[in-house]
Amino acid sequence: MLNPPLSPSPPLKEGGIIADESYEQIQLRLTGLVVKREGRLKVYNPIYAQVFNGQWVARALADLRPGFYGEAFKAWQEAQEEQKESFLLRGQALRDAETWAKGKRLSKEDERFLDDSQDVEKRDMERRLAAETEANQILTAAREQAESQLETANQELLETREESDRIIKKANRRNKLSLLGALGAIAIAAIAVPISIKAVDDLKIARQDVQEMEREKKQLEQDKDQLNKDKISLNRSLAQTKINEKKANDNLKRAHLNTRKAQEKYLQAQTKERAAQQQYQQAQEQVQKATLQLSQVNQDKIQAEEATAAAKEQLQLATTQKLQAETAAKIAKAAVDKAKTTLAAAERDQNTILAVNRLEKAGQASLNRAQYEQVRGLVDAMRVGEEAQQLVQTQGQKGFAASPIYTLQTILDQVENRAIKPWQHQTLLAHEGTVWTAAFSPDGQRIVTSDGTARVWDAQTGSQLALLSGVEAAAFSPDGQRLVTASSDGTARVWDAKTGSQLALLSGVEAAAFSPDGQRIVTASADTTARVWDAQTGRQLALLSGHEDRVYTAAFSPDGQRIVTASADKTARVWSAKTGSEIALLSGHEDVVRAAAFSPDGQRIVTASVDETARVWDAKTGSQLALLSGVTVAAFSPDGQRIVASSLYSKTVRVWDAKTGRQLALLFGHEDRVTAAAFSPDGQRIVTASWDKTARVWDAKTGSQLALLSVHEFTVTVAAFSPDGQRIVTASADTTARVWSAKTGSEIALLSGHESGVGAAAFSPDGQRIVTASWKTVRVWSAKTGSQLALLSGHESWVNAAAFSPDGQRIVTASQDKTARVWDAKTGSQLALLSGHEGVVIAAAFSPDGQRIVTASQDKTARVWDARTGSQLALLSGHEGVVYTAAFSPDGQRILTASSDRTVRVWPVENLDRLLVRGCHWLRNYLIVNPQALAKLATCQTPDLTQASAPYLVEYSEALAREGKINEAIEGFKIAQKWNPSLRFDPVSRANQLANDAKTDIPPMIQSTQ
């Protein structure tokens, strides 16, 4: 049976233990729990390590120790150092433990426990032996002293007897006077004998006898003195000597008798003492044995109870382990299946990566070859493109390779001379100055550009549809069918956006605007009139005449039934849009009226004047509802019921009732000019920003200040509510932006980190994030917590543009450091560096589907990039000046660029499929006469091409047959027949016949050499 070391050593860990080929380790390996690997024992299965853990090992080790030993060992381990000795084993328990431990490998703790127990037992034995020795020594000393005293007494008695004899003899000589001395001696002997008997009797208690002997010794000394005195007395009483002699003899006899009795009693006392000691020892052994038996019984009982509990626990544990093992087996099987799936996916991914890398290299190689073999390089690029197309079809985006697209795009642009002859690929020319604006029509079918002239272009073909001279501004109608232009010569013109034909000439125009339904146009003119025109025919519908000075603006009401105009004659007027008749004269301003607008519901009109007032009017009657003094800018609340107004140099903001003109609130508190004022989305609050370094939140009804946002250290440039109106973001020249609670005005977060003034701050459309822009960096923040979500750091100069992707997951930035970068909008990590421009990157924008990015640069190019990988897909080169703008069409199929070279260009956004088709078209003639190349390009194998190339393939296959390449020739014949089913012959027979004919035609000398 395996005897594991009885120690709480940890179970085998991942690193294992050193293998020593011991018997115990061999036994352990035979259990199957561990295996030997690289010279160490390691757990065979991680499940074993979970089941046979430290707790299991502790219980197993405890079960291996006997109960009496285990309890004492555990108590000894847990006791304080000074108390450990009291729990060590002694006596029979120690001997039992030694017997049990014999032949076992013990832990250092067990060995120390037994060694300490043996040391204590040895010390106890030595102390007992020393005590017994000391007691024996004391008893021996007492016995020797008693015997010495008895011998002394006998000697003194003998001496007394001898002295008595001398005295008797002398007494006989002195007339029997010695008789008295004898009697004295007898008296002395009578006294000494009882003392000696008493000394023998007192030997039972050794220590008391010693003390008694000392007293008797003193008494004997006294008796000796007394004998001397008696001796003197004997000299005086000789007559009495004989009597004393007789008594002395009698006493001597009795003394001898008593001495013998005392000796016998002493021997009996010794015998009884030994018997008592033996009985005491036996009784002590019996008590100890009974105690051990009782302890063993208790231990057996406890062990039985523990064994029962342990058996139940082991049964429960075994059941649990069985369930765990079954579960682990299922998990292991699932893990194995998952691992197989993962491995297969990893292998596929690895193969895909290798294929992508191969295609990237092959694409570059094709591009390099095209530099000196243009056609062959393009053919190679086509083959690589088809492989890339198939890889994407089977592996999805994982199989995307950018190089084949870029290579095809570049080679095709080169062979088609697009950069040299841009008019062949939808370049819009004929501008005479820098093209500052370019815009698609709402449906993306047309483009309007302006450089002092306006031009309309077909967005698909690039053909110029119309030249609109002398135009300062141009705009499509809401439905995109017409254009209205305004010119510095005082005219406006309406054009058909499809054909470019002029529909109407609107003379005397300073401003123009379509009606909400796009059917009419209203124009304002310096000739003191406004006019309404039919947007389709250009026919004048109404003349709005009545102003006495130039008309600056004209606008339709929301329902298109009325028109409001503002004039330098200090008035605004309301007109019927149908008839042109004046409905109301809005008179009261003391200076030029520069702006006029309807409220959202069309019931009121607000005007703003150079006289620093704003006025509210009833749109039906023209009566003045309110005078808003000190106003240069005014705006309605979202519901149109109130107006917030401020003056450019004023420190106050006022809120007015848009119906009655009654001032509802004066927002007074700013100490410098107000830079911005805006209602919250629900119209309940107003936020203002000022040069006094503060922003303030006001109650839009009462005008009471709700919060002072006064932490910024310089001018507050921006203050805006979040879309839900719950938060406010402010930006300042002090390099910070801050987020505030719109309800309490408490600062939620300091958006600090920019190293220069923050020029812009805005909430994302969903209101969940805030983006701020500054020198070299753009930062994205949580609109809820104010925590910085991302630092878009990496640019080395000003960031010119920043835009979210359509799904809001990414941000693209353009910088003066000649790069554009794509960032993760959540983490701020840079996803891609769009590097390649040789000048400042002015603009960057995502395609509508978010898959591509277009950038515009001072290096006279625009570039298209893969938004996921950052790989360059296309170089749009050809402009001869700075490219200011680049934008995708609404459908994402075209790109529009505008440049200082006085051109606007439209570029097709070509994916790999379109590039392959384009390549087939350009290679058409080459592929017809080179059927072997056509056979390798599945995309180009259209019916017209294959039928045209079939005769050339037959000719090519015949040449192969004559060269003896019969199998290749047969295969070529079969393909030719597939391309042109009208070819009817047996490919095998024809190939063999051609081969045989070729051999027959060979001169004899040449045949012999073959």
Q: How many DSSP H or I helices?
A: 18
Query: How many individual β-strands?
Result: 51
Largest sheet: 4 strands, antiparallel
- Which radius of gyration do the C-alpha atoms yield? 62 Å
What low-confidence regions span 5 or more consecutive residues with pLDDT below 50? Answer: 1-12, 175-197, 418-430, 1004-1010
Largest sheet: spatial strand order: 4-51-50-49
Distance between the termini: 85 Å
Globally, the shape reads elongated
Secondary structure: helix percent: 40-55%
The chain-level structural class is: alpha+beta
Strand content: 25-35%
Average pLDDT for all residues: 76
Assembly category: single chain
Tell me what the structure shows.
The protein has a four-stranded antiparallel sheet, with no helix packed on it. A four-stranded antiparallel sheet has the order 5-6-7-8, with no helix packed on it. The protein has a four-stranded antiparallel sheet with strand order 9-10-11-12, with no helix packed on it. Helix 7 runs parallel beside helix 9 (239-370), helix 11 packs parallel to helix 12 (912-922) and helix 15 (943-962) runs antiparallel to helix 16 (966-979). The chain has 18 helices and 51 strands. It starts with 16 loop residues before the first strand and ends with a helix. By secondary structure, it is α+β, with helices and mostly antiparallel strands. A hairpin with a 5-residue loop joins strand 19 (571-576) and strand 20.
Task: Please describe the topology of this protein.
Elements: E1 17-18, H1 23-30, E2 34-37, E3 40-43, H2 46-51, H3 54-64, H4 67-78, H5 91-101, H6 108-173, H7 178-201, H8 206-236, H9 239-370, H10 374-395, H11 402-415, E4 427-428, E5 437-440, E6 446-450, E7 454-458, E8 464-468, E9 471-476, E10 482-487, E11 492-496, E12 502-506, E13 511-514, E14 520-524, E15 529-534, E16 540-545, E17 551-556, E18 562-567, E19 571-576, E20 582-587, E21 593-598, E22 604-609, E23 613-618, E24 624-629, E25 633-636, E26 642-646, E27 653-657, E28 663-667, E29 674-679, E30 685-690, E31 695-699, E32 705-709, E33 716-721, E34 727-732, E35 736-741, E36 747-752, E37 760-763, E38 769-773, E39 777-782, E40 788-793, E41 799-804, E42 810-815, E43 819-824, E44 830-835, E45 841-846, E46 852-857, E47 861-866, E48 872-877, E49 883-888, E50 894-899, E51 904-908, H12 912-922, H13 924-929, H14 931-934, H15 943-962, H16 966-979, H17 987-1000, H18 1004-1009
Helix pairs in contact: 5-6, 6-7, 6-8, 6-9, 7-8, 7-9, 9-10, 9-11, 10-11, 10-12, 11-12, 15-16, 15-17, 16-17
